[in-house]
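Exam review. A common question shows you a sequence with its structure tokens and asks you to describe the fold in words. Practice with the pair below. Do the first one on your own.
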Amino acid sequence: MKGIATAWGRALRAQFSRRMILLSLVPLLLSLLVWGGLLWLGLQPFLDWLHGVFQEYGWFQSGGGMLSSLGLGALTVLVVPLMAIILLLPLMIASALLFMGIVAMPAIERYVGRRQFPQLEQKEGGSFAGSVWMNLTSVIVFAGLWLMTVPLYAVPPVAVLVQAALWGWVTSRVMSYDALAAHASTEERQALMRAQRWPLLAIGMVSGVLGAMPGIAWMGGAVLSVVLFPFLAILSAWLYVLIFLFTGLWFQYYCLQTLENMRAANATAQTAA
């Protein structure tokens, strides 16, 4: 816990440095370009398609009856926008994570390594191709599992716990690889990720709680007006970039400190032997 807390404090200080603020602009601009274009061109057709699906299967009647029984019949008009949010949210998270892993994490590793761990040997156990593969496969699995958990929104506490666990899994898998790619050998990275599985998952799950905030902001678009969808989606993209930036720094500091400690312990054991 001390190592996790120390890495958290270092990450919080580093996030507000000028270098990190400038770095956040690259994935942010990519997210704005992708999601701004998609929502501008495809939001209304997507909402129309969802509306047709709800009408075809009679979900408006069943959903409206359930809401009316709870005294919330006026919210029936928000069912389609809320469902659109639930379906688009994992794709937005996945794209933000992909941009961070490919564009920002290598720069974060260089920044932290040079400032905090200049004496730590770089064994180059990872590669850019390996990072792209790890990011792509992880975000595809993450998006699929997220969509499979959509029915759990009927029981909100369970949905929050399951999605925090998913967030913890995907961030610990992707960001641990990127954090150790330059400094650890393949064997060291695999050993560290096995030995530190639970601390890494804990960092990811705490970040998952922070990751709920953009979703809440976007949900407000459904409550206020469908017209606000694109603007709040762009706000969400920016918040996701900031949260992933902090998460990346947190993983970077924790992983490199743990790697340094592991090498010191191995050297001591070899000397004693």
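Now try the second one, then compare your answer with the model answer below.
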Amino acid sequence: MNLRGAYLTITFLLTIILSMQAQEKNKTDSLVFLKFNSNTLHEERKIVIHLPLNYYIEPSKKYPVMYVLDASKLDFDISDRLFTLSSADISPECIVVGILNNKGKRELDFTPPFMQTETNDSLSPMGKADDFFKFMKDELIPSIDSTYRTSGIQTISGHSRAGLFVLYTLIQQPDLFDARFCYSTPAWRFDNLIVQKLEKSFLKHKAAAQSFLYFSVGNKENENIQASFHHMNAVLEKSKPKSLVYSSDFVANADHQSNPIFSTGKALAQWSEYLKSAKK
């Protein structure tokens, strides 16, 4: 290679490196870490906000918000998937809000108040998802809406026990979220109690605005979770709630930990299709 060729090669490589660094810097700048003092929970909660990369470049644009439980895991994956899907014009760009757990509070926060936190311990406390629901509805969501340019479309995602909370929000207030994503939810607990409550709520909320529900289970998960997945499908098929469009996946080669990784891209793509059809 002659000197001119070497120079051009080095220049080309430097251009790529600088471009990657600029993009990475933008990505870093799009992360916001904050501490939120909750009057409802009587404690401080840590929140991670993933803003779209062009959030500050397009000052008039508004975005859907995705609330993600168990932050530091699913929220980063969802944000990355959304970047890829929105770049391909498949899904809209979104603001992703990850809510971190406080030590020792996850089981209480995500378990509905009509269930104990543990199935094999008769002395375990009842869940406090009602308090966490109030925190989200009355404090966190209004704060995000007043601080960032939100479009009014909001969704929530949860894996494992956090999926119980996602279903609880559908029972409590179907129109609080436009879409819900549940991955590997242990809906079998206490004889599928949450599915029973969900079925009754469809009758109670017949006039609720339409929303979208996605849930999935891996075919390598335990028998209880697989059985509750099939049971919920059967209940939804029987109920046929007009206020709910739902999609479910029994995911090949996925276990409890990997199922969200396998499912997230498909879930977001299906939600995007639902959004497009709802606009027609």
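Model answer, second protein: Residues 3-29 form the longest helix (27 residues). The beta strands are 31-38, 43-50, 63-69, 95-99, 150-159, 179-183, 211-218, 244-251. Full marks require stating both points clearly.
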